[in-house]
Amino acid sequence: MAELLNRLAAHPGLYRGRGDGLESGPFMARIQVTPVVRGRAVVLDYESFSDSKGLQHVEHTVLAAGESGRLELHVTCLELPGVVRFLESRPGVFNSYDGPLKARILMTVPSDGELTYGWWWSRDDSEPREQSRAEVRRTG
Questions:
Q1: Does 3-138 carry CATH code 1.10.3720.10?
Q2: Is the separation of the CB atoms in 20 and 121 below 8 Å?
Q3: Would you state the pLDDT for residue 131?
Q4: Calpha distance 74→8 (Å, rounded)
Q5: In a designed cystine with 48, which of 57, 90, 99, 138 is the match (CB 3.0 to 4.6 A)?
């Protein structure tokens, strides 16, 4: 389960790329990946923006192993009510709390220095759908 954490900790830096989605539309993405506590956690600072909508999303997330050993994302952004814990249910798939918005984050590292980061949610009782996905590469 810790492969994602280890791969991100081994390849820190600034990642840039493009994204798109039902909710977001096309955008540019920037994700700063910073290992902390000797690689036992990784901080992801994510911003997305477009020419037409300006700054669309600002997020500060910590990826770490929880007490059970499963990976967890601790996410804060304007769209969520405070810091929300997402638990990894299977590799790269993080499900959120039982709240008014069913949400899921899908994160993959297709190869070293590449990262995909997708937000899935539903505003009703239906299963979450992908609303936004960034595909970024490490720059430098």
A1: no
A2: no
A3: 94
A4: 16
A5: 57
